[in-house]
Amino acid sequence: MSIKVLGFAAESNTTPLAPYYFERRDLRPDDVLIDILYSGVCHSDLHQARNDWHGSQYPIVPGHEIVGRVVAVGNQVTKFQVGALVGVGCMVDSCRECSPCQHGLEQYCEEGCIQTYNGTDRHDHRPTYGGYSTRIVCSEDFVLSVPENLDIKAVPPLLCAGITTWSPLRHWNVGQGSKVAVIGLGGLGHMAIKLAHALGAEVTLFTRSLNKVEDAKRLGADHIVLSTDIEQMQAVQNHFDLIIDTVPNVHDINPYVPTLTLSGTLVFVGFLGELAPMINTVSLILGRRSIAGSAIGGIQETQELLDFCGEHQITADIEMIQMQEINEAFTRMEHSDVKYRFVIDMQSLKVTETV
Ligand code: NAP
Ligand code: ZN
Ligand code: ZN
Q: Is the CB of residue 157 below 6 angstroms from any atom belonging to ligand 1?
């Protein structure tokens, strides 16, 4: 017997998401079964549904910002009890033995971490399906504990947008006195501003969108630079210790590099692929500047983030949608028209579920 679930899936890179019935595995001894309450909509869901990264295996049930309650536990589960408020992010497993796994960096597992969707389970070799669905089964070691004091509707984005920006902020030791810039005010960008601000940094937003200035200030940005304005770009030369680039599409990073201070770092978290135009090395060499990349965050680090958000009352700014509105939400996200994360109320799927 397995667990019947209703989700929304893309059947190909050109078809809209539509209802899809599938089965979750029966609980293994270390598994928990989670009744999904809310699921965030990440730009990666759109990339994967459209096969932008050329590895999509259909049908795809996206969703890796999952918050729900535990409704059943396997007989060896020790960390969670029925009723616990929990989250699942971008990974559901990894080899657990390689050096990155041993160091809490499962996202860099040498055998490849198992993605929450569009992955293959290490044991039964079945495809993984994500959070645009009513229930999920996950090993307790990849389940996070969600602070009960937060508004849970606005918590899901912490599990990808939050951790993906938190991890570089921590890795590059951002704190009081740091000067951080964020490129792009979307899901990741708005979390980066909130988190960098809460860590005590001076925060600047680079945006193309003048209409986001007031929002950026409210979110915690000290300065806003219109990236299309040459004078404004000139005024921040040699300024930032760390730039977090969240832009999802190919773009020219050469104008940003000289805004790094001596030994500063620009870290990509958004665009995955070949840059164009190419990087001109002159301002890298003359300022001992670095270009880096960063992927989501480890399980321990994600728990650290959730606890930090619990203490500092930090959640995402969200727009709640019904599951049936997902295709329209994808189109709006493509046009940077979301303030600042869509979250799906999974109740909208449960009322139509017939099992
Ligand atoms: P999003 O909500 O769509 O936000 C992206 C923002 O980037 C937009 O709001 C826009 O901000 C700016 N932007 C969009 N197109 C641009 C362009 N052509 N040139 C310059 N700026 C542009 O997306 P998201 O959910 O934050 O995700 C961002 C990217 O991160 C996606 O590619 C996603 O796949 C990736 N991602 C990576 C990881 C990781 O582990 N590294 C994890 C999660 C997501 P303005 O209007 O302010 O310019
Ligand atoms: Zn994501
Ligand atoms: Zn590993």
A: no
Give 47-66 pLDDT, tens digit per residue: 999 999 999 999 999 999 99
Ligand 1 atom nearest 268 alpha carbon: 41
Say whether both 151 and 6 belong to one domain: yes
Residue labelled with tokens 């009352």: 313
Domain holding 65, by residue range, is 2-157+317-354
Q: Is 332 in the pocket of ligand 1 (CB under 6 A)?
A: no
Asked if residue 278 and residue 166 are part of one domain, the reply reads: yes
101: buried, middle or exposed (CB in 10 Å: 19+, 13-18, 0-12)?
A: buried
Question: Do 201 and 243 share a domain, yes or no?
Answer: yes
Ligand showing the shortest atom-to-Cα distance for residue 103: 3
Nearest CA to ligand 1 atom 20: 247
Q: Is residue 298 part of a domain?
A: no
| pLDDT of residue 355 exceeding 70 | no
| Alpha-carbon span 172 to 191, nearest angstrom | 17
- The verdict on 174 and 148 lying in the same domain is no
Is 138 in the same domain as 16? Answer: yes
pLDDT per residue over 27-48, tens digit each?
Answer: 999 999 999 999 999 999 999 9
Which atom of ligand 1 is least distant from the CA of 189? 26
Q: What is the C-alpha separation between 207 and 213, in angstroms, rounded?
A: 8
Nearest CA to ligand 1 atom 22: 247
Residue 300 lies in a domain: no
